[in-house]
Amino acid sequence: MINILAFETSCDETAAAVVAMDRDGSGVGITSEVVASQIELHAEYGGVVPELASREHLRLLPVVLRQTLKAAGLSVADVDAIAVTKGPGLLGCLLTGMSFAKGLALSFNKPLLGIHHLEGHLVAPYLTGAIAPQYPLLTLIVSGGHTALYLVGGFGVYQRLARTIDDAAGEAFDKAAHLLGFAYPGGARLAAAADVVAAAGGPVNLYTLPVAMQGQDDFSFSGVKTAISSLIAKVAAGRPLGKLTEQDIGDIAFAIQEALVASLVSKLKRAVLKTGVNRVVLTGGVAANRRLREVIAALPGIELPNIENANIELIVPSFQHCTDNGAMIALAAGWRYLAGERGDEKMGALSRWPLENLSAPAAAMTSAV
Ligand code: KG4
Ligand code: ZN
Fold first, then answer.
1. DSSP-assigned letters across all residues of 213-267
2. Is 348 in a helix, a strand, or coil?
């Protein structure tokens, strides 16, 4: 058994975790984890303020570390390696985490690994220990900062198939939510309002929004945002005092969720058809969206020899591990550590870092990876 202690500070969550696994990379389990969200700090500004976030990480890192170790019943001396998100993300935030992790690794003489944030998201479904990755797979990473589709040939082997040319999916949900009057970051609140309308039998007033960039590989959400803004203005103009009713907000939230989900799903469908791969990992904050999970799971797959219309095999993290957390960083680090990978003391942070620049860990891993 090995224990990996990891930190994640790429955006507005200060997170740490200890993840344990067998020496062949299987038997994964979370020993303890703490996620301190800074949402309230940034809410009044309507978005993440990088300087405030870095300072808050600096304040919270020792607290989160203490809580994580206490819950695990371990000290830093007991862990096999320390890991930290090296990028991509907000540079000041990444550097705060990197310096903290480096200091700890140096003082306790532990190996330090710098991990790619998106590789963390990608391995998050395997944190339960219930399933091991099988390749090839497609991954749709949909978060507040990233939206892209990759063909994954193996652990560390990534080929980008599509990306967003403007906003990320989470950003699109959050901006739409802001237009509807939900507090930042409103993505999950908008989704909840849409789900209430769906559960009550569907929208009373049926609005439709355009599904962007159909027929193309890449994602784009700026056009939908403009359409949402016009729709809200049009509906509000027909109401007393120009104010949307609760029903309007629910109905429009429903239309927004349908349009954003349809746009994500249409790109995924193209990728499945293009690659012939129907095993799909859906991950990142927006993977917590129930409607998105539902529509992807119901997609007919590709026609494989002997299997007619094999459905998409959808693999998702637990709801809490869709959004940023330290455990996903620890797991990616553990698999790299076991394959012999080590970071060096001069390692810096990278605000931009294409996932496809990674490579498979040097030594071939055994069964689990
Ligand atoms: O992965 P994440 O925690 O942060 C980044 O790495 O960016 O993703 C956060 C994003 C936010 O934009 C948030 O509004 C969105 O995920 N999100 C959702 C839902 N839950 C979180 N969007 C739609 N539906 C949800 N249920
Ligand atoms: Zn993330």
1. TTTSSSB--HHHHHHHHHHHHHHHHTSGGG---HHHHHHHHHHHHHHHHHHHHHH
2. coil
- In short, whether 144's Cβ falls inside 6 Å of ligand 1 is yes
Indicate whether residue 284 lines ligand 1 (CB < 6 A).
yes
Residue type, 262: A
Q: Considering only CA atoms, which of 273, 284, 269, 282 is closest in space to residue 314? A: 282
Strand partners, 30: 19
Contact criterion met (CB below 8 Å) for 207 and 255: yes
pTM of the model: 0.94
Give pLDDT tens digits for 74-91: 999 999 999 999 999 999
In this structure, what token pair is assigned to residue 19?
């993840």
Sheet with strand 157-163: strands edge to edge: 157-163, 147-154, 137-142, 279-283, 313-315
Of the residues 286, 291, 295, 351, which should be mutated to test ligand 1's pocket, given the most ligand atoms within 8 Å of the CB?
286
Q: What is the DSSP letter of 75?
A: -
Query: How many CA atoms are closer than 13 Å to the CA of 201, on its beta-carbon side?
Result: 2
Cα 15 from chain centre: 14
- Cβ of 88 closer than 6 Å to ligand 1, yes or no, is no
Residues facing 37 on adjacent strands? 13
In this prediction, residues 47-54 reach a mean pLDDT of: 88
**53 against 330, higher pLDDT:** 330
Residue 21 has pLDDT above 90, yes or no: yes
Which are the contacts of 335, defined by CB distance < 8 A and separation ≥ 6?
A: 25, 123, 155, 361, 365, 368, 369
In angstroms, the CA 168 to CA 164 distance is 6
